[in-house]
Structure formats: C-alpha cells, structure tokens
Amino acid sequence: MTTRTLLVGCGRLGLRVGELLLADQDERGRHEVLGLRRDPSSLPPGFVPVAADLSAALPTPLPRVDAMVITLTPSAAPSYREPLAHLAAALPEVPRRTVFVSSTRVLEGYDASRPLTEADPARPRSDRARVLVEGEETARELFGAVILRPAGIYGPGRDRLIRTVLERRPVEHGRRTNRIHEVDLARAILALLSSPAPPALLHATDGAPALLGEVVTHLAQRLGVPAPPRTSQDPGAGTVLDATALHELLGELEFPDFRAGYDAML
To answer: What's the pLDDT at 152?
Structure first.
C-alpha cells in the first residue's frame, strides 16, 4: 500500500519531513511525497514536484492525497484564509489526516508565572500571532486539521542565535525561552500523521525552558568568545511551556535540551 503525502510550503521543515517519510519504506507500505512550492525545481530526488501558487485559485486540480502537512508561514501569507481556501478548492477530497504547523507565538499574551499546556487558549498580541490563530481556525474548518505549535525551532541551518553570539549583539538575558530541535519537530509531525488518535492540538517544545542568558553564555563558552551583553531593557519576559503531551507522543527526544542540540550543531 502506498500513502501519498502532500507537503504544502515545502521549505526546510517540509524537506526534513519528506526525507523521513521516504526513508520509512518497509513491508507494511511505501510513501509517495509530493512537495508543493511556487517553484519546485530544486526539490531533492524522490520528491514529486507540484508547482502551485496559493495566492490565487489554482488552474488545475491537485492530486488526490492521503495526508497533508501545511507549513506556510505568516511572512509568506499575510492571511491564511485565501491560500487555504484555494488549497481546499483544488483538492479532489479532504485528506484523511492534515497537520497544520502554527507556532507557540499565539501564547505570547501570557507570562512565565506557570507552565502553559495545550489547555490554555491562544492569547495573541501581535498581528503575526493573530494571523497564526486565523490559520489554525481555518485549517480546522477546511481540513479538520491537527494543530502543531512549535516553540523556537533550531538545528542545522537555523543558526541565528550562534551568529548573535559571534557578533556580540545585545540580548535579553532574563527572557524565558522554549525551543524544539528541527529533528524532533519532524518526528512529531510523522507521529501525528500516523497516530490512530492524534491530539487535536500539540505544543512542540523540548520541556527544558531556559533563560536566554543561559543559552548565549553556553554558546559563548563553546565558541570561545565573551558572552553577548545584556540589552538596556531586559524585563524578563517570555513564557514557560509544558512538554508532557509531546513526550507522551514521542517518548525520549533526540535533543532533550539546548545543550544537546547546540553542541551537536557546533
């Protein structure tokens, strides 16, 4: 049996998910991976390229698929409603399983006084967070999507914080931060695709929140440079996220905290 999965917005995360799916070929079945991009010409071997621009109605129908992963970003889509409506209109039928990748940014209205779980409603403050909430609601409405909210994603090619340390740019040392390594995020997506009864909402975070000052100090020590200075305004903001649900789904993470993840990168 072949399972066809459509990766909508097939960027760095979509590529990693597709590679994991293609590697998961055994006697139980095979995976066919379709990568949807405006220009899919650079997709790696094994991916079926699908050229589509979701900013307008698609001129031809999309292939029928069993599953779908949507990783469009607010920067690429100032509103999710029209792109997702165009996607729904082009599909012959709703896939059996859809995962919509959002962000824990939708929880930015909370403070760090207690760990936040999936039971805490979204509390957006910025336009970007409000667009993400709109995307979640639209994906549920159109596709019955499972919502996955990653915390700060890092991993190979996602080295912004390393560059910040090397350039000694000031940071808020007192900010509470949460993160997830891209490898474990991709594993979470595969688990949500294959689970017979996935959660309706999942926070992807490693469960090891840390002050940003701890993280940059560790990086500076590994890089052999002074830690970056503290910003003039450092209110100690941020949130703390509970990772119980992710650990119940995945078990042990490959990168359980920032030290393990960044040390592997360095």
So the answer is: 96
Name the more confident of 73 and 154.
154
Residue 48 structure tokens: 């079926």
For residue 130, the model assigns a pLDDT of 94
Question: Do 185 and 104 form a contact (C-beta atoms < 8 A)?
Answer: no
**pLDDT tens-place string over residues 82-132:** 999 999 999 999 999 999 999 999 999 999 999 999 999 999 999 999 999
Tokens 């919502």: give the residue. Answer: 147
Residue 15 three-state SS: helix
- With CA atoms as reference, report the closest residue to 242 among 200, 208, 199: 208
pLDDT of res. 76:
55
What is the rounded distance in angstroms from the CA atom of residue 45 to the CA atom of residue 132? 32
Query: Number of helices and strands (H, E) in the chain?
Result: 8, 13
3-state secondary structure 178-224: CEEEHHHHHHHHHHHHHCCCCCCEEEECCCCCEEHHHHHHHHHHHHC
Distances (CA, A) of 31 to 65, 70, 80: 11, 17, 28
d(CA 105, CA 16): 22
Mapped onto helix, strand or coil, the DSSP state of residue 70 is: strand
The model's pLDDT over 128-150, given as tens digits with 9 standing for 90+, comes to 999 999 999 999 999 999 999 99
State which amino acid sits at residue 109. G
Note the pTM of the prediction, 2 decimals. Answer: 0.95
Indicate the Cα dihedral angle 225, 150, 62, 196, nearest 10°.
Answer: 130
- The rounded distance, in Å, linking the Cα atoms of 230 and 5 is 45
